[in-house]
């Protein structure tokens, strides 16, 4: 048989030989043996060619055999590395310990499931004399960062792949400040994993944790304290008790059902109607193509049907690990309107500020009030902050940045009221320094109930916000591209648009007034032309500001083979014509697709 590069083959042979020595899971071991026996080079390369990369979001990959997949052995190896790194960082690790939780994902062919992965991770820590707070049942992802802060632990691990396809799983890590890790922790943890690949003597024996004095189950106490803390964000309990607004909730076969029921109870609401086919956790996600409420109407089909049947006006949809929230509202026309993440960010930001203002009529507290959003999200909070006198800051994309920044501000005595990102992620209560779809769901329910007493819908209130603070119209999409080389070429072309190392000055008929490149660290709006936000050479991200008030960002995705774009047109306050703005934005987006993406030239696949 023709063999590939000799170096590659010996590396594959070494990896598979180690695997056969170390793997004690009969299913993944058998699967590896079969691949070797069949000489299935392509599949061996996929499973054993390169170890999953441990990034700031931890790990995310398909479940199955090999170092490139999520399985018992890679969970043990990852946790051994993480454990050694934590021992170096925290002298009191053995006093404080870590929290571990999990979602309901499972992959019968490889015997992998989130609960088993969580138990193996717990075993690793406990054999080293480190206390572990392991939830006994599934929880939403935000319960892990909540527990880290509440019990003052050194770290948290959540086993989840959020809204990824059913074969995937993940390993998400929180630091002792209750936020996701940032660089250089990820590099250092990767290094520690490489130095601790061989399973420790008791690594596979998860039965030893059962009677261990180091194992604690925080489920009951955390459930109680989380919902107690949540009650502080309930401003209109009597309205909630009396409301005629009906809600439908779906947890999309994930973990959210009982937690959202509890949140409604904490706010004095009757429970929302749950979509029966989707309320129980099911790792097969049988009723949806993708378990991702960001995909909009496809995931909500059963919710629309139940809402129409029960005459419910509002649909609340969590993703499978309940850290995100999508919302739809029945319009007078009978149509359902699914709000974008930016529109919900506007509604929640306005509501949290309005409720805060009612409790704090004294304006002097405004100087310590902050809201955050990511740089690819709508700038609506900036407009509200300018007019109302509080602070707004933008961070890089992703909640790890907003969580860490929020913690810095809180430690300086500031009050962080709200943070959001357009990917339907909201931090409404700073006792969780990450996105939380449980708190967001019940806060939206209270907002809708309060507005109903004034005969207003969410849509009408959104319009009122835009009239008061200026219309912010957004449009985002992506192209699929599996070739890293092509992506690099496309972005390099934008940096050298005229052949003389200059960025473009126009895009079709639209004049460009500013450019920020967070890959290279260039920002022409700064006096020294240096970007203020952190830069990253490993990912592509360029933001164009246009003379017509438009802003567009093109960036690569950290978790998917996509080049994404986010565009927004901001108008000043007053009654502008939203239809005209939409038309202008659509034309701008078409120009960006045609001139900057050049899908024909680069053979890009548009969003389906």
Structural description of this entry:
This is Phosphoglucomutase 2. The chain is α/β, with parallel strands linked by helices. It has 4 domains: 218 residues, Alpha-D-Glucose-1,6-Bisphosphate, subunit A, domain 3 (Alpha-D-Glucose-1,6-Bisphosphate, Chain A, domain 3, 3-Layer(aba) Sandwich), CATH 3.40.120.10; 111 residues, Alpha-D-Glucose-1,6-Bisphosphate, Chain A, domain 3, CATH 3.40.120.10; 128 residues, Alpha-D-Glucose-1,6-Bisphosphate, Chain A, domain 3 (3-Layer(aba) Sandwich); 136 residues, Alpha-D-phosphohexomutase, C-terminal domain (TATA-Binding Protein, 2-Layer Sandwich), CATH 3.30.310. 40% of the residues lie in helices and 19% in strands. The protein contains 21 helices and 25 strands. Strands 18, 19, 20, 21, 22, 23, 24 and 25 form an 8-stranded antiparallel sheet that branches. A 6-stranded mixed sheet has the order 1-7-6-2-5-8, with helices on both faces. Strands 10-9-11-12-13 form a 5-stranded mixed sheet, with helices on both faces. A hairpin with a 6-residue loop joins strand 11 and strand 12. Helix 4 packs across helix 8, helix 11 packs across helix 17 and helix 14 crosses helix 18. The chain starts with 5 loop residues before the first helix and ends with a strand.
Can I get a quick summary?
The chain has 608 residues and is an alpha/beta fold. It contains 21 helices and 25 strands. It has 4 domains: 7-224, Alpha-D-Glucose-1,6-Bisphosphate, subunit A, domain 3 (Alpha-D-Glucose-1,6-Bisphosphate, Chain A, domain 3), CATH 3.40.120; 227-337, 3-Layer(aba) Sandwich (Alpha-D-Glucose-1,6-Bisphosphate, Chain A, domain 3), CATH 3.40.120; 342-469, Alpha-D-Glucose-1,6-Bisphosphate, subunit A, domain 3 (Alpha-D-Glucose-1,6-Bisphosphate, Chain A, domain 3, 3-Layer(aba) Sandwich), CATH 3.40.120.10; 471-606, Alpha-D-phosphohexomutase, C-terminal domain (TATA-Binding Protein).
């Amino acid at each position: 048989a023709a063999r590939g590069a000799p170096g590659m083959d010996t590396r594959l042979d070494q990896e598979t030989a180690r695997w056969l020595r170390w793997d004690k899971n009969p299913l993944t071991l058998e699967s590896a043996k079969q691949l070797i026996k069949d000489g299935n080079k392509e599949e061996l390369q996929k499973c054993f060619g390169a170890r999953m990369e441990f990034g700031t979001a931890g790990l995310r990959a398909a479940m199955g055999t090999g170092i490139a997949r999520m399985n018992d052995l890679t969970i043990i190896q990852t946790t051994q590395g993480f454990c050694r790194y934590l021992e170096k960082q925290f002298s009191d690790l053995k006093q404080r310990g870590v929290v571990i939780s999990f979602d309901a994902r499972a992959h019968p062919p490889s015997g992998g499931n989130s609960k088993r992965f969580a138990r193996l991770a717990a075993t690793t820590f406990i054999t080293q004399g480190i206390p572990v707070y392991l939830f006994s049942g599934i929880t939403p992802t935000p319960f892990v960062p909540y527990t880290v802060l509440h019990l003052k632990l050194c770290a948290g691990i959540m086993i989840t792949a959020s809204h990824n396809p059913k074969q995937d799983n993940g390993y998400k890590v929180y630091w002792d400040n209750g936020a996701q890790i940032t660089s250089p922790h990820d590099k250092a943890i990767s290094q520690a994993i490489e130095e601790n690949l061989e399973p420790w003597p008791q690594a596979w024996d998860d039965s030893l944790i059962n009677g261990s004095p180091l194992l604690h189950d925080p489920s009951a106490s955390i459930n109680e304290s989380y919902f107690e803390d949540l009650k502080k964000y309930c401003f209109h309990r009597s309205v909630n008790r009396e409301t005629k607004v009906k809600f439908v909730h779906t947890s999309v076969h994930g973990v959210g059902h009982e937690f959202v029921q509890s949140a409604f109870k904490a706010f004095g609401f009757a429970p929302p109607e749950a979509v029966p086919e989707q309320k129980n956790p099911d790792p097969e996600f049988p009723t949806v193509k993708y378990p991702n409420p960001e995909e909009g109407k496809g995931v909500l089909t059963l919710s629309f049907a139940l809402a129409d049947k029960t005459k419910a006006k509002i649909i609340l949809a969590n993703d499978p690990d309940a850290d995100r929230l999508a919302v739809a509202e029945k319009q007078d026309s009978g149509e359902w309107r699914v709000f974008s993440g930016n529109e919900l960010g506007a509604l929640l930001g306005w509501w949290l500020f309005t409720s805060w203002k009612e409790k704090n009529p004294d304006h002097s507290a405004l100087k310590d009030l902050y809201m955050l959003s990511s740089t690819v999200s709508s700038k609506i909070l900036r407009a509200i902050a300018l007019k109302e006198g509080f602070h707004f800051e933008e961070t890089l994309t992703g909640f790890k940045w907003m969580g860490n920044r929020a913690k810095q501000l809180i430690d300086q005595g500031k009050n962080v009221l709200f943070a959001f990102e357009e990917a339907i992620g909201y931090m409404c209560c700073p006792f969780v320094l990450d996105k939380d779809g449980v708190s967001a769901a019940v806060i939206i329910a209270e907002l809708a109930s309060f507005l109903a007493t004034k005969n207003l819908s969410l849509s009408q209130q959104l319009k009122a916000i835009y009239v008061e603070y200026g219309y912010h119209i957004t449009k985002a999409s992506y192209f699929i591209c599996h070739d890293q080389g092509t992506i690099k070429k496309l972005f390099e072309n934008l940096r050298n648009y005229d052949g003389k190392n200059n960025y473009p000055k126009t895009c079709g008929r639209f004049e460009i007034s500013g450019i920020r490149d967070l890959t290279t660290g260039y920002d022409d709006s700064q006096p020294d032309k240096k970007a203020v936000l952190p830069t990253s050479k490993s990912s592509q991200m360029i933001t164009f500001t246009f003379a017509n008030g438009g802003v567009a960002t093109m960036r690569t995705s950290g978790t998917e083979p996509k080049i994404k774009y986010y565009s927004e047109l901001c108008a000043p306050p007053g009654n502008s014509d939203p239809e005209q703005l939409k038309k202008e934005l659509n034309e701008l987006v078409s120009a960006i697709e045609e001139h900057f993406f050049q899908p024909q030239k680069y053979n890009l696949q548009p969003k389906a």
